[in-house]
Amino acid sequence: MTRxxxxxxxxxxGCSSAPAAPPPDPHAELAELDPRTPVPLLPRMAAHQRAQxxxxxxVVQEVTDALARDDxxxxxxxxxxxxxxxxxTAMCTHMGAGAPGxxxxxxxxxxxxxxxxxxxxxxxxxxxxxxxxxxxxSCTGCHAAYRQEIVDEARWAALTASAH
Length: 164
Ligand code: HEC
What we know:
- The chain has helices at about 5-15, 25-35, 45-70, 70-80, 85-95, 100-120, 125-145, 155-160, and strands at about 35-40, 145-150.
- By secondary structure, it is mostly helical.
- It has one domain: Four Helix Bundle (Hemerythrin (Met), subunit A).
- Strands 1-2 form a two-stranded parallel ribbon.
- The radius of gyration is 25 Å and the shape is elongated.
- Heme C binds near residues 56, 135 and 142.
């Protein structure tokens, strides 16, 4: 038998003694492809954060729409839903407990949204638009830096032990 025939027979019969590789874990594969800093969250926190985020996007959509219609009162009213409040601060602090720097970015973005509402109440269309642009830069900056990572109770407790 020629050498190349031997190789072919060997391939056909599966002569390798190496064990079959385990099937790839799709979550681990995605995490490896995504270099952003993980924000560890319990599943219910992750779902809540996503719902909040979709609400944030509705606010910036409404502010843009109001600006296009020159309705600064509507812009102020929409932006105030994105502004700083005790409950928002508490929520962002909780969400960022396992990811250094996350809460600071979140609170910064809400401060910038305060500036949208302030400028709109003053009737300053240009300043309102500028504050909207600054706020959106905070949104995109954080999205470029962080991603959600779903963890169980034990891992959450371990990761946030020093934050309590
Ligand atoms: C402090 C960080 C931070 C800021 C600021 C921030 N986000 Fe997010 N946002 C996230 C993270 C983390 C995710 C989850 C992304 C992931 O895992 O890929 C997310 C996801 C989203 C999603 C997807 C929601 C879903 O259903 O999957 C939307 C929409 C969104 N953000 C809108 C906004 C808007 C609009 C702003 C600004 C007004 C904003 N975000 C500001 C961190 C932030």
